[in-house]
Amino acid sequence: MIKLLIADDEALVCIGLQSMLKWDQFNIEIVGIAHNGAQEEEMIDTLRPDIVISDIKMPIKSGLEVAGSVRKKYGRLPLFIMLTSYEEFQYARGAIEVQATDYLVKLELTPEALSESIRRAIGILETYQAMESYPKLVHRGNIQAQRDKFFIRLFNNLFENKNQYLLQKEDLDLDLPGAAYLVCTCRILGPDTVPPRGDKLVALCSSTVQMAKDTLSSVSPCYVTSLDLRNFAVALPVPGTDPRLWMPDIQKLLGDMASVLHNYFNVTIIGAIGFAVEDPYLLRESYLAARKALPAAVKERSFVFFTEGEALAQEHLLFDFSESRSEIRRAFEEMDTRALYTIISRMIEIFDGRSDLLVPATDAACNILYMATSLLADGENIVEQIFENEPEGYRAIYQMHTIEEIAGWLIQFRDGCSNILSTRRQSYKEQVVKNVQEYIKRNLGSKLSLNQVADVFNFSPNYLSHLFSKVAKVNYVEYITEIKITAAKEMMVRGEGRIYEISQKLGYESAFYFSKVFKKVTGLSPRDYMQQIESGTEDVRSH
């Protein structure tokens, strides 16, 4: 069971927390109650709880001091949920510095709020435990990270076609049923008390974005995506494309969110809202409109709406990144560092001295960044490594205001990416194939056509087929067949259904076709195989 420690100097609060929820329903055991900070830290050392609900203000040692000390000793566990009877929001900022998972005001605490906070902590705990249990397993990442990448691709027009968009949307279980959608790009300004770089800034901005998600989603279903450290985008459903149907509501929704974030973190949130589109696949257009209006939002330090009829991308007519996109995609897919170096160098030459190309140059740099994080295994870690010595790391791209700064960013990316990828080519390709194989094993009930799986992983079918055959030493179709027939034999041994039921579970169009494939691979029909199992023939399990 998950071990929980409660720490508060008020006995009634401790009793209330113990009785507020049915803890066994969360698979949680309360292992101790502490009434001051020193006792809390001692009990953490001896009981090693997974989650700690701790008052911030306590005798001897504050909850924040305990959390800071424990974090240095034990790393990211235990998780802390901080409580206070004070409404001053500077305590929230202290909770951020010790990486608390949540901050709750006692006067506002309800079973629902506590339950939501506990569920969030359990989710984080499960992620950490999985990472520690399987430290070498490189998976496609958690669902939220993959959804963020999905929207980044969508906003930046990085899908090859609409079918690829639909397949990834289905794979990530994304539901976009609204009559229409729009994008708001938001920027986090301040506070001056936080250094311009470092862990405190990262913690502040990530916590701000998380609270923006929580605040907005409590009112309306939406998707919030981090663009860089200080910028995030919100995809919001609206009742139609006519702004008269939604403008006042959106203005209030975003204003309320900005007020909450200012109260908690002393930050100012400004943003620009694009127009609404009926097809979510066209959210790129709303995103571009919002980007176009963002300078006005920065100037007014408020939320502004894109003015209908305003030219969307006059500057973009001077440079068309789409011509380079397919070349860069191929260079990333094939780890062709020479081609990547040449393409980016050509772009830098085009931008050199052209201050009128600042907007398209910024968008081109962001597109390259997002392609790297989307197409490369461990892509985000690669770009973080390239910009590890820069203020705000690679996320500073939106903070650049001159063509010279953008060119410098592109040069650093080009050189760093070429150096890192040249040392990783073979191991990277092996990891890509391993990720594809894991995906296949998790989705045996699907047809798993080459085109579909290539779209899920954002590769071209021809490239994935070639790479798979070269690394796995078996072609893609043969591998699918081998894995499905092996799974079918295991199902038969375990008695998991009749032949037609097994064929359906494995995504075959008919039991007849399944039987034909099964006999070709094993030399036996499924019926003969099952009869041999029933008769106890020993060698059937090794066929």
Topology:
Blueprint: E1 2-7, H1 11-20, E2 28-34, H2 37-47, E3 51-55, H3 63-74, E4 79-84, H4 90-97, E5 102-105, H5 111-133, H6 143-155, H7 162-171, E6 180-189, H8 199-217, E7 223-226, E8 231-238, H9 247-265, E9 268-273, H10 283-300, E10 303-305, H11 322-333, H12 337-351, H13 358-375, H14 379-386, H15 403-422, H16 425-442, H17 450-456, H18 461-472, H19 476-494, H20 499-505, H21 511-522, H22 526-535
Parallel strand pairs: 1-2, 1-3, 3-4, 4-5, 9-10
Antiparallel strand pairs: 6-8, 6-9, 7-8
Domain Response regulatory: 3-121
Organism: Paenibacillus phytohabitans
Protein name: Response regulator
Strand content: 5-15%
Helical coverage, percent range: 55-70%
Strand order of the largest sheet: 2-1-3-4-5
Number of separate helices: 22
Number of strands: 10
Overall morphology: globular
> Can you tell me the residue ranges where pLDDT is under 50 for at least 5 consecutive residues?
131-141, 311-318
Rounded to an integer in angstroms, the radius of gyration calculated over CA atoms is 27 Å
Task: Note the gap between the termini.
Answer: 42 Å
Q: Which class best fits the helix and strand makeup?
A: alpha/beta
Mean pLDDT metric? 82
Largest sheet: 5 strands, parallel
Report on the structure:
With 543 residues, this protein is of the alpha/beta class. Helices cover 55% and strands 11% of the residues. It has 22 helices and ten strands. The strands form two sheets. Strands 2-1-3-4-5 form a five-stranded parallel beta sheet, with helices on both faces. Strands 7-8-6-9-10 form a five-stranded mixed beta sheet, with helices on both faces. A hairpin with a 4-residue loop joins β7 and β8. α8 runs antiparallel to α9. The model is unreliable at 131-141 and 311-318 (pLDDT under 50). This is Response regulator.
